[in-house]
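User: Please predict the structure of the protein below. I'd like the answer in structure-token form so I can feed it into my own downstream comparison script.

Assistant: Understood. Taking the following sequence of 263 residues as input:
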Amino acid sequence: MMNVRFNKIKNIFLAALAVLMLFLSFPQVLYAKDPDSSKIYVTDEAEILSDTKESKLQKKCKSVSKNCKTDVAVLTISKGLDYTDLDNYVRTFAKEKGYAYDSSSSEADYIVYVIDMKSRAVRVVTSGKAKSDISQSDLQSIIDKTTSTLSDGNYYKACVKYTDITQKLLSTSKTYKLYLYMPIKLGIAAVIAIVVVLVMMFNAKAKMTVDGNTYAKNGIHVYRREDRFINTTVTTRTIETNNSSGGSSGGGGGNSGSAGGHF
């Protein structure tokens, strides 16, 4: 009996280990494809960024876009636009640039941080995943936390703040949290599973010191007795409830599509 139980535990452990190794051998299943290497995430028409900082910001936006599964872009202009006119300009710009992380999505997934040096306006325009996962208050928070930096003339720092906040906000989505650091999570889970199984195997060995054959050698007959479950009867009763009161609406993300301010 001890050997049967030991073999059963061993088989379960080996099967779980095999599944884990197979899972780890296909990391591409866990992560979406890399962003298009030719895609431009930073467009500095107002020329407020040095070439070096623009290059760094491009890499930053590309990395955040990959992590958030959403195109994260920066646009600077000097056209004197604001409010709805600026939003419409950004959406046209985003379409021309091909901002849409996943082409199979029903709505293009992107977020654009735009600075208009002529109107001194700054806005964040969202679509798709960024629009549904980021709340209006959080969207306005991006503006509030970067406006003072823009006023100080540190445009690069403001853009970096925007990318950092955006990544933090989008990383709270269930999908991102599920796949974030997946190899590390699986490794920890594997170690825990191995420890648990080893403890179970040790306890099984320690407890199974004697069996029926031990006493049978001394002339004692051991009879096995078992109880068999035949059936059960379940009686159900409908409990009426009062549905006259209206249900409360759930919270979550979602915004009007944009937010803005001035510096």
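That's the full token string. The two ends are 78 Å apart (CA to CA).
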